[in-house]
């Protein structure tokens, strides 16, 4: 009984200490708002009234990911909740793909005139705009519940990307000051993204467009403005008019998966000459053959492969994930052309902690490979580094982290 009482007392003391720590951090947060954020916001034309309304009753949201409270150090998380961090195939679950496609076709009919006009003005295909709209907010049907000022304030004060979110917080205050949002309170995603296209506040200020001619850029309630804003974003990020986003292909064993990446591009006719073919059986379009293409294998040899164009990387400017850009291109093609699932099948990969992948990345770095940083995420630099290491060590290159590599790849 005595050890139980002792354990309870120890737990109570730890809980009390934790509460005191959080209370102290909350006070630091309020001081930071007044001493750092308010002067910066004022310099951008934000009034004291807007500042007070934005943070009235707002406290830190301790449930957000990637937080680094004062006095602690950032760590590579062992588990991850975002789909981009897990097995690639999970990103393309049937419900997500089919839902975005079926509703996208309805929206294509409903907003045909707006889509045609925006495509003519920006060069961005309507099917691509629709796929982004569907992925970001379910065509405006997904509830967005977070308080944008709490999210951006928390992440600006104590996150792994504090400077970035501080700038976004100032931009959100500018949006509130100008009265762009349809209500006094801004709602956002857990990352601070706004409205149906899920623009970060700075992107709203830069790219939000008036699609219905009413003199406003309303990405919260207007489908027309949402469509125009997405098209404007992609156009201003370099969408190449007349080119596709990419093609699913078959990559023969004679072509190394380590040739992946936007810095290893070559004309598509060169990829074709190496034996890479479209899985559809069709030839690459003639107008694409002289244009640059890039090998993209998001699961290495354990999944579908693609030759993508510069437009694929414009899609990545919207969201940095390879899988996101691939989802958008694929759903857009399904909406307009009625294509089916990928021909390649996703293997059972991704069953690793991010900390495991980070360990492999550090080992590869020590061997002289550029993995793009030891962040625990298997981006193209990590994938091809694994492939090069596998080739150099006499292994069959798969270009993707696997459980069996944990013992062989240690710093």
Automatic annotation (TrEMBL):
**Organism the protein comes from:** Ruegeria meonggei
Q: Peptidoglycan binding-like domain spans which residues?
A: 354-398
**Residue ranges annotated for the Transglycosylase SLT domain, each copy included:** 28-333
A molecular-function term among this protein's GO annotations: peptidoglycan lytic transglycosylase activity
Under the heading InterPro entries, the entry gives: Lysozyme-like_dom_sf, MltB-like, MltB_2, Peptidoglycan-bd-like, PGBD-like_sf, PGBDSf, SLT_2
> What single Pfam family name could you report for this chain, choosing any that match?
SLT_2
Task: Tell me where the signal peptide lies.
Answer: 1-19
Please identify the protein, giving its name as recorded: Membrane-bound lytic murein transglycosylase B
Q: Which domain of life is it from?
A: Bacteria
């Amino acid at each position: 009984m005595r050890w139980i009482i002792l354990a309870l007392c120890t737990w109570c003391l730890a809980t009390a200490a934790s509460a005191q720590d959080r209370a102290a951090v909350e006070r630091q947060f309020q001081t930071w708002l007044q001493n750092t954020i308010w002067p910066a916001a004022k310099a951008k034309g934000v009034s004291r009234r807007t500042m007070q309304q934005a943070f009235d009753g707002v406290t830190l949201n301790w449930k957000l990911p990637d937080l680094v409270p004062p006095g602690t150090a950032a760590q590579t998380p062992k588990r991850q909740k975002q789909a981009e961090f897990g097995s690639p195939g999970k990103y393309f679950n049937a419900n997500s793909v089919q839902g975005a496609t079926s509703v996208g076709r309805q929206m294509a009919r409903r907003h045909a005139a707006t889509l045609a006009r925006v495509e003519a003005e920006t060069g961005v295909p309507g099917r691509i705009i629709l796929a982004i709209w569907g992925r970001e907010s379910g065509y405006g049907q997904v509830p967005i519940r977070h308080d944008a000022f709490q999210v951006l304030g928390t992440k600006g004060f104590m996150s792994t990307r504090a400077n970035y979110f501080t700038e976004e917080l100032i931009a959100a205050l500018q949006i509130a000051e100008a009265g762009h949002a349809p209500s006094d309170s801004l709602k956002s995603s857990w990352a601070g993204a706004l409205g149906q296209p899920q623009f970060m506040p700075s992107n709203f200020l830069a790219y939000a467009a008036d699609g219905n001619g009413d003199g406003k850029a309303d990405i919260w309630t207007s489908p027309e403005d949402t469509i125009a804003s997405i098209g404007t974003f992609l156009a201003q990020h370099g969408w190449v008019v007349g080119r596709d986003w990419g093609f699913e292909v078959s990559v023969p064993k004679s072509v190394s998966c380590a040739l992946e990446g936007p810095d290893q591009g070559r004309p598509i006719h060169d990829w074709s000459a190496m034996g890479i073919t479209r899985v559809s059986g069709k030839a690459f379009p003639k107008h694409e053959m002289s244009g640059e293409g890039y090998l993209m294998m998001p699961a290495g040899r354990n999944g579908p492969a693609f030759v993508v164009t510069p437009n694929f990387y414009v899609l990545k400017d919207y969201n940095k994930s390879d899988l996101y850009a691939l989802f958008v291109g694929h759903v857009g093609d399904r909406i307009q052309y009625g294509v089916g699932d990928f021909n390649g099948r996703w293997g059972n990969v991704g069953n690793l902690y991010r900390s495991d992948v980070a360990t492999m990345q550090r080992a590869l770095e020590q061997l002289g490979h550029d993995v793009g940083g030891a962040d625990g995420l298997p981006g193209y630099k990590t994938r091809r580094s694994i492939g090069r290491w596998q080739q150099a060590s006499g292994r069959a290159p798969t270009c993707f982290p696997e459980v069996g590599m944990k013992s062989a790849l240690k710093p």
